[in-house]
Amino acid sequence: MASLVYLFQSGGSMTPYLLAGVGYYSGKVTVPSLNIDESESKVGFGGGGGIRFPMGSAALFVEARYINIATSNDPTPYVPIIAGISFGGK
């Protein structure tokens, strides 16, 4: 997913942010015993927010997103909660 990120001004040791993006998702289901082998690729949209904790040229982050993929029958929504380290940037 490619995302645009808006960092809020913060005077403290953490920086809150919002993000929004779009991506292309592929899924495949295979159940040999039921003779099912299906795949689908669709566009998905999402948005969310998080908090960055700057540490020199890197930052720890925790974020949650709501992602909705426009699958054939019904949309497929999910909410990943992600923690990690980012390098570079401001």
Briefly characterize the structure.
With 90 residues, the chain is mainly β. The protein is built from no helices and six strands.
Structural commentary:
With 90 residues, the protein is mainly β. It has one domain (2-87): Porin (Beta Barrel). The chain contains no helices and six strands. The protein has strands at residues 2-7, 15-31, 36-55, 58-69, 76-78, 81-87. Strands 1, 2, 3, 4, 5 and 6 form a six-stranded antiparallel beta sheet that branches. A hairpin with a 6-residue loop joins strand 4 (58-69) and strand 5. The radius of gyration is 17 Å and the shape is elongated. The two termini are 21 Å apart. The relative contact order is 0.23. The mean pLDDT is 92.
The separation of the N and C termini measures: 21 Å
Name the helix and strand elements from N-terminus to C-terminus, one letter apiece.
EEEEEE
Structurally, the number of domains stands at: 1
Number of helices: 0
**CATH hierarchy class name:** Mainly Beta
CATH architecture title: Beta Barrel
Runs in which pLDDT lies below 50 for 5 or more consecutive residues are: none
What would the principal axes of the Cα set say about the shape?
A: elongated
